[in-house]
């Protein structure tokens, strides 16, 4: 993958099921080496978006490109440079672990042997039948299968949900090391925000089929604030905020607003002109996620 070629390029992706719009003009581009978190509650459209990114689902409008190719017409040699880990691994129950790894590796001639660090992390008996593996072991196997041919573009859909805390911790470190060493790009969907925060360079927030916020992780932490007005402020108090601030979430229960583009040079940032006192807080990712995706 060249340094200028986007690993993933979504252009106004729209997908409907009947009269329900599950993706609404979603656009973003992911560069080589980026690890990007795809965030949102159940039903936000994340899995549908992943299906469109991979070409498993065809959008009603818009397009998806991966490694410079339209996913609907992706040549085999380009497809061989991609990897995918689904939420759950199905099938292959009669295979033994080592047998399955060798069988699928044969579809990638010339690919290097599986990385010993990943094999050690998975800690799977190569003679064990897939049908006898626990849920966590099957997920480790799915990750091995997706990574053994060293893909340049990788999509992970809830890859750590069934892993224990130590396995999740080690997985995130290995994934970061893998991207640093290879320049691979990763899209990872997960509800375990503390894991994503450690390794992802960028955050994509989905809400009801819409990409509502696309922000670098460092920018999110530096320039996001939670503003809570004193009791008595009207529900539309945010209309009086400086235009430079971008309201990205609201909490109707407390009348608070989550804002982006907060400057680092002035803690008060022209809020003195508001007719109510404002409490300013720096939110953590989980608290911000709840307000952005509400």
Automatic annotation (TrEMBL):
<feature type="domain" description="ABC transporter">
    <location>
        <begin position="8"/>
        <end position="233"/>
    </location>
</feature>
<dbReference type="InterPro" id="IPR003593">
    <property type="entry name" value="AAA+_ATPase"/>
</dbReference>
<dbReference type="InterPro" id="IPR017871">
    <property type="entry name" value="ABC_transporter-like_CS"/>
</dbReference>
<protein>
    <submittedName>
        <fullName>Thiamine ABC transporter ATP-binding protein</fullName>
    </submittedName>
</protein>
<dbReference type="GO" id="GO:0016887">
    <property type="term" value="F:ATP hydrolysis activity"/>
</dbReference>
<dbReference type="GO" id="GO:0005524">
    <property type="term" value="F:ATP binding"/>
</dbReference>
<dbReference type="InterPro" id="IPR051782">
    <property type="entry name" value="ABC_Transporter_VariousFunc"/>
</dbReference>
<dbReference type="InterPro" id="IPR003439">
    <property type="entry name" value="ABC_transporter-like_ATP-bd"/>
</dbReference>
<dbReference type="InterPro" id="IPR027417">
    <property type="entry name" value="P-loop_NTPase"/>
</dbReference>
<dbReference type="Pfam" id="PF00005">
    <property type="entry name" value="ABC_tran"/>
</dbReference>
<keyword id="KW-0547">Nucleotide-binding</keyword>
<keyword id="KW-0813">Transport</keyword>
<keyword id="KW-0067">ATP-binding</keyword>
